[in-house]
Amino acid sequence: MADSRTGGAAPTVLRVVLGKRLQHLRERAGVTFEQAARSLDVTHATIRRMEKAEVGLKVPYVEKLLRTYGVSDPEEIDGFVSLAREANQPGWWHRYRDVLPEWFSVFVSLESESEVIRAYEPHYVPGLLQTESYARAVLRAGMPHAPEAEIKRGVALRMERQTVLTQEANPPLLWAVIDETVLRRPLGSPDVMREQIDHLIQAIERPNVALQIMPFSAGPHPAMYGPFHLFRFPLDELPDMVCAESLVGAVYFDQRDDVSVFLEALDRMSAQAVPLVRTRAVLSALRKEI
After folding, report:
1. What is the pLDDT of residue 5?
2. Does residue 9 sit in helix, strand or coil?
């Protein structure tokens, strides 16, 4: 995979779109990687990396490749060039680059451009649904030696990410399954946990937030290996993508065979977890136990 949108798109996703479109044009024209590379005086590996969105797309390169692929319509060329320029603009999260590792900037880019976000979280409340106090406790637990200023910046980034759920224009559907452990493991003080559960109860009132709880009583389930997110986009060029996180980074998948495994796991878990209509009751009951 690749480590966006037309009209104000996120740069990383836009690069993926451009890469896919260039690949389509090259293949349609019957041009090999080597032939495309010779037109730019670069290596064939560079062309592959451009199509995989692993590097930025220079406008002169885009224009030359389009001519090599037989594109002569000025309007089509202008559209590509505009998209390339937009793709080279930094996203809003660039302001947080001091606390945002590269692997996670990809995640934020995908999250910002999704129309559906599905997730499984066995340890924490998903970042898009965390309160400030809960987020601070999560970040402090993961970075025990970080200075307070870094934690504060991390919390600010997390809060800004959440605006994607409340934006007026086409907010994504967030459909998450969380393990019962998430709600029973104390994180911060009891007040922090109660506030977080209250926040979840409010969040599920939104039409674009669906939350299910996987109870202990459900036994083993298909995603016991760890947390992951699946992103679906409103752009034809982009396939579903999955991000599987680890302690020091993440792996992104966009091949159909890989993604289908995660999608099936989510579908099976959604059937196995507490039904959506009972989420509020479960949250309220757990809150009383804190």
Report:
1. 34
2. coil
Amino acid present at 48: R
Helices (H), 88-207: 102-113, 132-142, 148-161, 180-184, 190-203
CA torsion through residues 194, 195, 200, 206, sign: positive
pLDDT at 1 over 70: no
CA-CA distance, 117 to 180, in Å (whole number)? 20
pLDDT tens digits along 92-130: 898 998 998 888 888 998 999 899 999 999 999 999 999
- Residue ranges of alpha helices (H) inside the chain are 11-29, 33-40, 44-51, 59-68, 74-87, 102-113, 132-142, 148-161, 180-184, 190-203, 256-272, 279-289
In angstroms, the CA 134 to CA 125 distance is 9
**Residue 10 — pLDDT band, cuts 50, 70, 90?**
low
Q: Tell me how far the alpha carbon of residue 17 is from its chain's centroid.
A: 15
Q: Distance (Å, rounded) from C-alpha 34 to C-alpha 22?
A: 15
Strands of the sheet containing 241-245, edge to edge, are 209-214, 173-179, 116-121, 228-232, 241-245, 250-253
Q: Which pLDDT band, with edges at 50, 70 and 90, does 11 fall under?
A: low
Q: Using CB atoms within 10 Å of the CB of residue 74, give its burial: 0 to 12 exposed, 13 to 18 middle, 19+ buried.
A: exposed
Residue 228 to residue 249: CA distance in whole angstroms? 12
